[in-house]
Amino acid sequence: MTLSLTTSNKQIIKVKDSPIASGGEGAVHEIVSPSSMCNSCVKLYSVQHRTPQREQKTAYMIYNPPPGLQTPNYLICWPAERVYENNGFAGFVMPLAYSGSISLYEICTTKIKDRMPDVWKRKYDRSTNAGMISRLKLCVNIAIAVHSIHLLGKYVLIDMKPQNILITHDGKICIIDTDSIQIANGKQVIYPGPVATPEYIPPEGKNLSPSKNYIPECWDRFSIAVMFYEILFGLHPFASTASGKYKDVTTILDKIQNGLSHLGTNSKYIVILPSLHKNLRNVPKSVQILFYKTFKYGHSQPDARPGAEIWGETIYSEITQQKNLNALGQKLSPAIKKAPRVSSKKTQIPKQPKAAPKSQSFFSRFPKINMIRVLAIFAFIALSFILVNNFKNTRWIENLFESEKARLSPKITPTPTPRPTQNPTVIPKVTKPPKPDSVKSVRPSVRLRSSSKVLSKDDVITMLKKHNFFDSNWNQSGDFKNDFKDNGNGTVTDRKTGLMWQKGGSKNSMNFKDTAAYVRQVNQKGLGGYNDWRLPTIEELATLLKTKEMNGGLYNIDPVFDKKQWCCWSSDTVKGSSRLAWDVLFGYGIVERYRISDGYVRVVRAGQSPRPTPNPTVIPKVTKPPKPDLVKSVKPIVNLRSRAKTLSGDDVKAMLKKHNFSDKYKNESGDFKNDFKDNGNGTITDRKTGLMWQKGGSKDYMEFKDTAAYVRQVNQKGLGGHDDWRLPTLEELASLLERQKMNGDLYIDPVFDKKQWWCWSSDTVEGSSGSAWVVYFGLGNVDSNDFDGVSYVRLVRAGQ
């Protein structure tokens, strides 16, 4: 049986009356005729949903499609034509999903279901390297498709989830249910996105209703991160159990709103964490960082969440650099096949017992009358285990440092304690003047604007066509011919425009406001012998766009340039918006209006003027020597070790008991009495130990290898008039632990700042080549931390 429908162009089409898929709003039917539409299908709304507003929204989407609705790797099922039944609006025509597609949800579960064909299990097996790469490729395709929808600045998906994406065995993806999208002009909602799924709603969703309020694009950034987490690891990022004031928070939606994830703002309350979360540590660090930015910083700063374009660029880069993915599956395999081993040195979440076969169930061995008693015993044992341990496993994600540098395992060198100087002098670092290059001035054949402007979209399109610059959206026929020369000193000259370019660019993406600092840094170093580098205008930057991929994968830029700088800032801003600047996305071959939160920098200078200075001098910033403080020396009552050592767990327990230091787990009865004095200059003196402490500490946490640089920085500034600050030993740092919370949620005297929730000591862990001891003031205990983990720093000096 078939149904007869009419398109908005008065064409008659026939569809099968039995749907191939159905949902709450309607059903999808396959087209039988005409044959020219057999690769399409029709979504027919239920009678109650065939409203004038639905018809208007569908028409708007048809006339305003996003760029790139279909590529070899993805398909967006966007409305193509309205259909009518009995002269009334009934639905729309859209592309038919790829043959053999299944719901993405099928591979987002912990284990691919047994009913699935073996070919799917092999392709997406998380325990193999190939399986994980297949999953990462899926994420790239999804990210590119979502980014193309966001590009117009009109659409927010709102209800992005695995159930709304179909995938094929070979990794192609198809986005469906696009008609639930929000359409807005600026912040004015034209057509709302009426529904959202609780597990994918960001924290701010508590105060926003998609059917009533404007929903910003950063909503989708949260949803895509949750979905990628499920693809890669098989569970929701907020799947965990909390304690304390959050012990009754059980739903995923409530956990999201309270930041109750091992990556969230309230991770310290997590007491039970499924072992699959640990596999996050096994994907490339750059990918870990994107999850961390989404769920940590993005909790209170939604704009800090990485967008789809950043996800796509980052994962694609890691896939192409296979060195970071070698043995990825082998790393993941043990964590999936068996629970983590409990160690005496590092506390871990209790190992879950394997389920017995149904015929020999554990509880079947007991009479039913004793079932409650057995459950009570097990609950008591589990609760005791959690209370005794220090929740080490729930803290590991805090050990992500937002850097993409390689792991280093520094050697620990004890730092001697110099005597205080009466007038410590800070010797500024002198930068040697760079040697001028020998590149001759170039007379350009095309002159381009070098001063920044405020430009509208029409201004940019006119500029592109004027100079014949290529743009895959606005000037596809453009083909500007450059004449590049690699100068061999980190610069590239374009003899066509007379411009000299930085061959590479910034190592990391940055906020638009931070570009000026980067330009100053390049000029201080005197790249190529010049100190007049600047941010290019969009007119200059667009000269680098090429009509095809020339520089590996997605990059529409000549291979003479480095390909890391996937999207680059110009100095031009967008007319009518204080939050956008013009940017060139080499990954897509387009000029685009870009949010000022994230982009790379490639600086430029005019090759012909000014001429290179024969000896450009970089004048170092001179720091005035600090005035010495007036705090008198203090003779300690208790002498503590000041030189770094390697300590075992037993050494630490003995030290805590020797000095009566408090530790919630290793010496609960300890109660060391300090005698603090606030010196009023950012320092605190403990008259009991004779130590002088930094009142605050580092603003951010850092890896262990970066603590030495922080110490140098503090000593150069001469905190409190002293330049002999150092990292404290564990013995010194543990002296600050209090028996109870005294400073908000911290076990430390309120005379100190409370930002430094946990701090590095200079002591390392015996039997480990990559761990140091730390003090957790948020938990009231001493524990170890890996070198490539992160902690804050609070420095000390001997008061006497």
List the helices and strands and how they pair.
Blueprint (H helix, E strand, L loop, with lengths): L1 E6 L4 E5 L4 E2 L3 E8 L6 E6 L6 H12 L10 E3 L4 E5 L2 E8 L6 E2 L14 H6 L5 H22 L4 E2 L8 E3 L5 E3 L6 E4 L2 E4 L26 H16 L7 E2 L9 H6 L12 E3 L12 H11 L12 H13 L7 H10 L33 H18 L3 H4 L58 E2 L1 H11 L16 E3 L4 E4 L4 E4 L12 H11 L12 H4 L25 E8 L5 E6 L4 E6 L8 E3 L39 E2 L1 H11 L16 E3 L4 E4 L4 E4 L12 H11 L12 H5 L23 E8 L5 E6 L4 E6 L9 E3 L2
Parallel strand pairs: 6-12, 17-21, 25-29
Antiparallel strand pairs: 1-2, 1-7, 2-4, 3-4, 4-5, 5-8, 7-8, 9-11, 10-13, 11-12, 13-14, 15-16, 18-19, 19-20, 20-24, 21-22, 22-23, 26-27, 27-28, 28-32, 29-30, 30-31
Helix pairs in contact: 3-4, 3-7, 4-6
Strand content: 15-25%
Query: What is the residue-mean pLDDT, rounded to a whole number?
Result: 82
Number of strands: 32
Structural class: alpha+beta
Q: Classify the helix fraction into a percent range.
A: 10-25%
Number of helices: 16
Strand order of the largest sheet: 1-2-4-5-8-7
List keywords for this structure.
800 residues, alpha+beta, 21% helix
Task: Describe the protein in words.
This protein has 800 residues and is of the alpha+beta class. The protein is 21% helix and 17% strand. The strands form eight sheets. It has a six-stranded antiparallel barrel with strand order 1-2-4-5-8-7. A four-stranded mixed sheet has the order 6-12-11-9, covered by helices on one side. It has a four-stranded mixed sheet with strand order 17-21-22-23. A hairpin with a 2-residue loop joins strand 13 (182-185) and strand 14 (188-191). Helix 4 (218-233) crosses helix 6 (285-295). The chain is globular, with a radius of gyration of 31 Å. The model is unreliable at 330-372, 380-439 and 608-631 (pLDDT under 50).
